[in-house]
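for the writeup, i need someone to sanity check this before i put it in the appendix. the sequnce is what the collaborator sent (i think, or maybe the updated version? ugh). structure was predicted straight from it, no edits. if anything looks off just tell me and ill rerun, i have time this weekend
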Amino acid sequence: MEAQPANPASPIAVFGAGGKTGTEILRHAVGKGIKVRAFDHTLPEPSDRIDNVEYFQCDVLNDHFSSELEGCHSVISALGIGFSPSTAINPPPLYTEGTRKLVEEMSATGISRIVVISAAFVEPQPSVPAWFELTARPTLHNILEQMRAMEDLLERAKGLEWTAARPGWLLDEPYTGEAVITDERLAEGCFRCRHADLAAAMLEFVCESTWINAKPAIARPEAEHFESITALKAQLGID
């Protein structure tokens, strides 16, 4: 049976709502009149909160939050691990244990739809520059392996309608609405994905019930200075 679009009268629960992609999800949702509940480990100051959003403090690894999910029709997980030498070596289990906890709490509430952030680079991408594969992949290996394990967890879950969004190398620039979405691997010539474009795509996956049980890759062509090895080194703090 084909999945039906989500009920616009019910809110979407957004986890990792304080991060770059999570914040963009909230902005896009509010702009479209979609109700959202924002969950994050540390809540923003009241003056920094987005109007018409319900905020909940939540540690997904340790808290129980099924009661806060009551009435929601779906979950978007923008949980992510900030890069640093320590997290690259020993990343906290946000993608694995965090996603497992989300699925458990969803099950207790009767929610079956979830969209999460993975990465295009969990598997080789033909369109990715060789220097990125040689430089970034080894650095991000442990984080990427955790993302791969998260995808496996979702695939094994019974009765779950999941989407593992696979953005390209994320970029903090304004929304374009020009992201190219393809099945599992990045489209030719596409390498980077803006947080805002990723957020809009994830929200669309939920609201339109698209890419169910799939791994859509999301990216767009960018200016050369955004795709250079110099930009990578600056972002990852590599000398």
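The chain is about 35% helix and 20% strand. The longest strand covers residues 161-167.
thx in advance!!
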